[in-house]
């Protein structure tokens, strides 16, 4: 192979020829190594792929507003399961519940995809991104702390934080101005999670520590861009970008913050509880916080965590738990503002439980909030705040209809499409909490509704977040009525790692004059 460009010096020509030969060789070896994957992939429908770049052009220069709809369009056109080549990376999109169930429950697809390594740059190798062996041990260590019985111990913290939201938002009551609820709900959710995880009050709600919401809004678009741009998957190229520098700054700052929080917990723990593990089981002065199992693991002969591991896990939980819960709360209120009839029904339920009394919420009360739970679930169907996630196939995995997900492929699950599939939901574009009556749920495929993913690697915080959301919303709705000038069709969402609402979650606020008004 010789490069024939007139005027080029011989040495340059020779070097270019060698480069071309090397690239052709690498391409040939890759092609040979992935022949099995390509053969199985050829059975799937999907857009025609170009050599080397595959279908990457479909996503090129798409804004965050376009991405969701481009992927939705592909799902509509090719129907699940279908293939999409992002450069040499094979993505198989899976939106049918039967196949989602297989993927989320198979030990062959328990691992996270390579792209999750990008999150490590921000959050470290915590539970969301951890390699399989580390994930298995951490999940085992942490799962007992997330049992509903243990979580209800944190309801008083949730009540306290929700009460601060009321105090802070009181200033907007009756102003007739639509305000963005997100900053109030994010800081509450973040502070609650820090206290429930470590027993440490960071008080970002009261302006006593940094409000991380802005930082998270800044780094999420950088990560989203990297995910869908195959050339930025190459570390060498990515590390030269400004995005990489911003990510590093965020990560360094958040690590420092987490280190201080962990040190606070350590001080408190050794001062009040000594190092006796028995103290951690139920002693009133020394309660067991969500992440204590990791921090106490030093004493355990099987499981040990370095300081770096502990910081990674702290960041992971704060990021995975605070935005998701806060955004869902805001989406719920937005839906109630748009549908006053549902808002009154939620209020009626609260009134039936509490009357005019201002008694603290008990676990029994939470169980009685069935309609509120239906509204939260319908909101999560409409706005799954984690709208897309992926698994890596370690081995060939049989799907329905004789398709086989090839080893090395990425299974992409896209709740944002599944939750609107007309084959599963009779009127998907109508917001209807009755989609989640016990009867309707029993008659629907369990994996038609997957806001928390599912199987062994599903969200560890799902019970925590449901209890936190019910507590916060119960307190809020009993005091305030929300409204908006927007209709459902005006709400625009976009992909920013999580699902965001264009322009924020803006609503008007009115105080209920007395409880039953
Ligand atoms: C409305 C609230 C929430 C939603 C919709 C949600 C959704 C999800 C989803 C879809 C996943 C799977 C992600 C993937 O496979 O890439 C996940 C995983 C995870 N979530 Fe949540 N989450 C919520 C709240 C929380 C909370 C409050 C916490 C912490 C207290 C939390 C901690 C985690 C962790 C640690 C994982 C990784 C689990 C593992 O790999 O074993 N999440 N979440």
Automatic annotation (TrEMBL):
What family does the entry list? Answer: Belongs to the cytochrome P450 family.
Question: What's the protein name?
Answer: Cytochrome P450
Q: How does it sit in the membrane?
A: Peripheral membrane protein
CDD domains per record: CYP4
Sites where the protein binds heme: 459
A GO term from the CC aspect: endoplasmic reticulum membrane
**Organism source for this protein?**
Bemisia tabaci (Sweetpotato whitefly)
Q: Does the keyword Transport apply?
A: no
Gene3D superfamilies to which the protein is assigned, alphabetical: Cytochrome P450 (1.10.630.10)
Keyword field contains Endoplasmic reticulum: yes
Question: Which SUPFAM superfamilies does the UniProt entry name for this protein?
Answer: Cytochrome P450 (SSF48264)
Listed cofactors = heme
InterPro entries, alphabetically?
Answer: Cyt_P450, Cyt_P450_CS, Cyt_P450_E_grp-I, Cyt_P450_sf, Cytochrome_P450_Monoox
Q: What keywords is this UniProt entry annotated with?
A: Endoplasmic reticulum, Heme, Iron, Membrane, Metal-binding, Microsome, Monooxygenase, Oxidoreductase
Identify the domain of life: Eukaryota
State the Gene Ontology terms under molecular function.
Answer: heme binding; iron ion binding; monooxygenase activity; oxidoreductase activity, acting on paired donors, with incorporation or reduction of molecular oxygen
Q: Where in the cell is it found?
A: Endoplasmic reticulum membrane; Microsome membrane
